Amino acid sequence: MTSTSAAGSDTRAARSGGSALELEQLEKHYGDFTAVHPLDLHIPAGQFFALLGPSGCGKTTTLRMVAGLDAPSGGSIKIGGTDISGLPAHKRPVNTVFQSYALFPHMSVFENVAFGLKRRRVGDWKARAQEFLELVELVHLASRKPTQLSGGQQQRVALARALVNKPEILLLDEPLGALDMKLRRQMQTELKRIQTDVGLTFVHVTHDQEEAMSMADTVAVMNAGRIEQLGPPQELYDLPLTAFVANFLGRSNLMPGTVVGRRGEFLEVDAAGHRVLLAAARAVSESGDVLVGVRPEKLDIRASTPGDAATAENELAGIVTDTAFAGMSNEYHVEVPGLGDFAVFAQNRGAAILQPGDAVTLSWHPEHAFGLDGADDVDAGEES
Ligand SMILES: Nc1ncnc2c1ncn2[C@@H]1O[C@H](COP(=O)(O)OP(=O)(O)O)[C@@H](O)[C@H]1O
Ligand SMILES: [Mg+2]
């Protein structure tokens, strides 16, 4: 599935200085290794677009082809409707922010931001540099040298330096990767605010699924040189179409089974002898082998009572194998005969915490399950 479009959120384009980005059959080979398979992608102007995937899946290669830093093996790139495939990097209306800030160490913050403007002899360079320092809230540190700044502040200088040139598209390659977790979360909010303020098209590359989901209008999940699924974060999370997406974006319990019948809107699935209902509209296939997926927070867990045989549909009897108290919630692992390990997130509402060895019953609303191709690898996209 490489034909993809992120339509539906160009509302911001009207007040945007940004442009749409269109990739057509863009691909990259290194010898006989394919880093990026032919990729069709349309990113509307003004969008915050995230390219999400594990290390080595082809994110940087894709970005570098757009920036003009790597030559594609085939395909074309359009910005604002104009084919820029033949332009050298410095003539493309894009700027890139990398994980390493590459600031000029001997220049002040102000000089770093003003550098490109002065070189291009932009008339109002002083006012422009000041404006972008304000945008990233660094006016008070304008005369400091980069070494006198924290990592987050340095990244904001790098951002101002890229934005001040008014690119049509800003490319960000793991720009927050060097920051510690707390600063990273803070900068995510900052970056989102700045993108909203300037209304530019942002293409943000990351391997951090939480970062992609919290910031982007559209997330594209990339795996081994291909985009597996693309859409608004909530949609991807709610209805993943492959095991890779189900596991890489959040967590999923995946049950192998076979469709054995149909009841109205629902498919009846036999999963290791357990009867499970699955909404047909939420399944990639309506017959044959499937994987039934349920997110850990969609599972209800209760202590089994004697004689409670868990015979109803979408009820599984199991034994707690692990309990982790995390304040707001409890995370349980439950072993279900024939189906293996289930992860369960239970909100802490004051009920007694279940202990390893406890017999429990798991249940869920059939509308919360999703159905994947039975041939998918249940462990695809799991963080190792
Ligand atoms: N110059 C190169 N020569 C050979 N292989 C490369 C080169 N650059 C990248 N690759 C390979 O292409 C794949 C994608 O790399 P990259 O786009 O950097 O991944 P990501 O940014 O998603 O971590 C990787 O397997 C990488 O080893
Ligand atoms: Mg990379």
Structure write-up:
There is one protein chain. This protein has helices at 59-67, 109-119, 125-135, 151-163, 181-198, 209-215, 233-238, 243-248; strands at 3-5, 21-30, 33-43, 48-52, 74-79, 82-83, 94-97, 169-173, 201-206, 218-223, 226-231, 253-263, 266-271, 274-279, 289-294, 300-303, 315-325, 329-336, 340-347, 359-363, 370-373. It has two domains: 3-238, Rossmann fold (3-Layer(aba) Sandwich), CATH 3.40.50; 251-373, Nucleic acid-binding proteins (OB fold (Dihydrolipoamide Acetyltransferase, E2P)), CATH 2.40.50. It is α+β, with helices and mostly antiparallel strands and 384 residues long. The two termini are 25 Å apart. It has a six-stranded mixed sheet, with helices on both faces. The model is unreliable at 1-5 and 7-15 (pLDDT under 50). Bound molecules: adenosine-5'-diphosphate (ADP) and magnesium ion. Magnesium ion (MG) binds at residues 59-60. Magnesium ion binds at residues 59-60.
